[in-house]
């Protein structure tokens, strides 16, 4: 699996570097306009962050699509690697790529909006909050990609032809997201208990709809039922995708 | 003699199209088998099933006693008829890639074959001509000490001189402990290396046997027999 990650990163190394360089140069340009453009600077910097993350996220999906529909799949899927290994490597590689671009873009955004780089910024950082946000971010990226990869693979398995397969994958994705959203609303309404990570207590004061995690008034909370549902959904989709890759995937 | 590959009534259907209709085929250890047939006869479909990238609709295929999966992929060296190497790679990256993923990959043999094929390790894969890419793919595939080699049109798109070179590479790198299945349209060029042949048409094996026995029995070359069977 780690060898696959190594080659995936190597294959996309230039793309990652290219996006980061563009983001840095564009933000440096925005810094020179801080005095004249005023609010447009942070606005444009945040747009840059959004666009850069979207581009690298889409690129991660394109790589999977190429493996499923183009000749490069013959190289990957004839390797003595299991579906679990192939899927895990794709998820980890995508997470690393997205994190690098998001990290660089966020740092440049911070440098653009801050008046001065103060050591107080680092002193005020709460380790718990950082860990909580990193964990939340990793869950979000991995969970989102797992849903999308599942839809891509099942679309390829169920429907023959590139266009039909891709369209089918999109339709399956929309249906799956709506279904998961509906179940999520129902389950958080029925079981509103949240686990407060700052006090390690369970409370049911707030109903957090469609979200595992929330930060309010210094509390780090997650809805217990929603989180269990997400873990089950993730495990189910991950294992199903791995099974489909091993047993059902036909390359054209 | 042990059979490295046994296929029993393998069928493959795509909606209303039947690509394979009950293919029975055995490949004995130490044999080079030619799977011959016209376009759309099911040759490539059968090879893809053996390589583990297509799944049969019916029937069973066993390679070294196991269904296609992670184990069989570790003992099967498959040459597809497309350009599957990643475009960012240089020749040396492709060699390293195979070395990293296949425990039976022989780097020394790969270097010898690269020299034999006149391939520069520092060349970029995307800069190679079709014939050179074919040579590189063959170098990578033959550098493995695999139990079964599956070569889909190994002479496709290469000039006659290169064909001879490729054939020599195949023969000199083949060991008695392994087996090979080859598909080709260029029967005349390659028939000398076949031990056995199987003719496939419409997804069915229509004739199979020992190449030399067929030549003696029919008093014609395999190439002539091919033309007669598929006329």
Structural class of chain A: mainly alpha
Low-confidence stretches of chain B: none
Please give the order of strands in the largest beta sheet of chain A.
Answer: 2-1-4-3
Apparent shape of chain B:
globular
Shape of chain A: globular
- CATH fold group of chain B: Rossmann fold
The CATH homologous superfamily of chain B is termed P-loop containing nucleotide triphosphate hydrolases
- Radius of gyration of chain A equals 21 Å
Low-confidence stretches of chain A: none
Give the strand order, joined by hyphens, for the main sheet of chain B.
5-6-7-3-8-9
Output mean pLDDT of chain A.
86
Structure at a glance:
The complex is a heterodimer of chains A (252) and B (231). Chain A is mostly helical. Chain A has 9 helices and 4 strands, in the order ααααααααββββα.
Structural summary, described in words:
- The complex is a heterodimer of chains A (252) and B (231).
- By secondary structure, chain A is mainly α.
- Chain A contains nine helices and four strands; from the N terminus they run ααααααααββββα.
- Chain A has helices at residues 2-32, 34-37, 40-69, 72-77, 83-113, 119-124, 127-158, 162-190, 224-248, and strands at residues 194-196, 201-203, 213-216, 219-223.
- Chain A has a four-stranded antiparallel sheet with strand order 2-1-4-3.
- Chain A is globular, with a radius of gyration of 21 Å.
- The two termini of chain A are 25 Å apart.
- With 231 residues, chain B is α/β, with parallel strands linked by helices.
- Chain B has one domain: Rossmann fold (3-Layer(aba) Sandwich), CATH 3.40.50.300.
- Helices cover 35% and strands 27% of the residues of chain B.
- Chain B has a six-stranded mixed sheet with strand order 5-6-7-3-8-9, sandwiched between helices.
- In chain B, helix 4 packs antiparallel against helix 5 and helix 5 packs parallel to helix 6 (160-172).
- The two termini of chain B are 34 Å apart.
- The A-B interface holds A 3, 6-7, 10-11, 14, 71-75, 77-82, 160, 246-251 and B 14-15, 48, 51-55, 69-71, 73-74, 76, 78, 80, 82-86, 88, 97, 100-102.
């Amino acid at each position: 699996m780690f060898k696959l990650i190594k080659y995936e990163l190597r294959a996309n190394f230039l793309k990652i570097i290219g996006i980061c360089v563009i983001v840095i140069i564009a933000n440096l340009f925005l810094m020179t306009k801080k005095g004249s453009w005023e609010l447009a600077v942070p606005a444009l910097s945040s747009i840059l962050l959004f666009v850069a993350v979207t581009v690298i996220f889409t690129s991660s999906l394109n790589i999977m699509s190429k493996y499923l529909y183009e000749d490069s799949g013959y190289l990957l899927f004839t390797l003595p690697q299991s579906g679990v290994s192939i899927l895990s490597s794709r998820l980890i590689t995508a997470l690393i790529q997205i994190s690098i671009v998001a990290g660089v873009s966020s740092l440049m955004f911070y440098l653009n909006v801050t008046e001065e780089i103060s050591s107080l910024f680092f002193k005020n950082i709460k380790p718990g909050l950082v860990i909580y946000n990193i964990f939340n971010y990793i869950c979000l990226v991995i969970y989102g990609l797992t849903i999308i990869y599942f839809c891509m693979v099942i679309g390829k398995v169920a429907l023959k032809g590139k266009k039909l397969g891709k369209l089918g994958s999109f339709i399956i994705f929309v249906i799956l997201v709506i279904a998961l959203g509906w179940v999520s609303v129902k389950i958080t309404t029925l079981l509103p208990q949240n686990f407060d990570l700052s006090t390690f207590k369970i409370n049911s004061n707030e109903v957090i709809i469609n979200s595992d995690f929330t930060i309010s008034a210094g509390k780090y909370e997650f809805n217990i039922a929603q989180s269990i549902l997400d873990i089950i959904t993730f495990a189910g989709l991950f294992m199903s995708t791995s099974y489909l890759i091993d047993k059902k995937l036909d390359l054209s | 003699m042990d059979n490295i590959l046994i296929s029993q009534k393998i069928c493959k259907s795509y909606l209303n199209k039947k690509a394979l209709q009950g293919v029975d085929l055995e490949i004995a250890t130490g044999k080079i088998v030619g799977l011959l047939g016209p376009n759309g006869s099911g040759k490539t479909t059968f090879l893809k099933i053996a390589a583990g990238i297509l799944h049969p609709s019916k029937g069973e295929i066993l390679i070294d006693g196991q269904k296609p999966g992670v184990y069989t992929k570790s003992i099967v060296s498959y040459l597809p008829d497309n350009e599957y190497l990643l475009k960012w790679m240089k020749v040396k990256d492709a060699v390293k890639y195979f070395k990293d993923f296949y425990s039976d990959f022989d780097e020394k043999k790969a270097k010898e074959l690269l020299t034999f094929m006149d391939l520069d390790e520092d060349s970029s894969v995307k800069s190679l001509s079709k014939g050179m890419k074919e040579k590189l793919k063959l170098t990578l595939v033959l550098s493995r000490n695999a139990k079964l080699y599956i070569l889909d049109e190994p002479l496709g798109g290469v000039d006659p001189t290169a064909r001879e070179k490729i054939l020599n590479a195949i023969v000199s790198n083949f060991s008695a402990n392994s087996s090979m299945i080859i598909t080709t349209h260029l029967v005349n060029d390659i028939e000398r290396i076949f031990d056995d042949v199987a003719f496939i048409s419409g997804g069915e094996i229509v004739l199979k046997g020992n190449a030399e026995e067929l030549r003696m029995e029919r008093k014609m070359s395999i190439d002539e027999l091919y033309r007669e069977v598929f006329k």
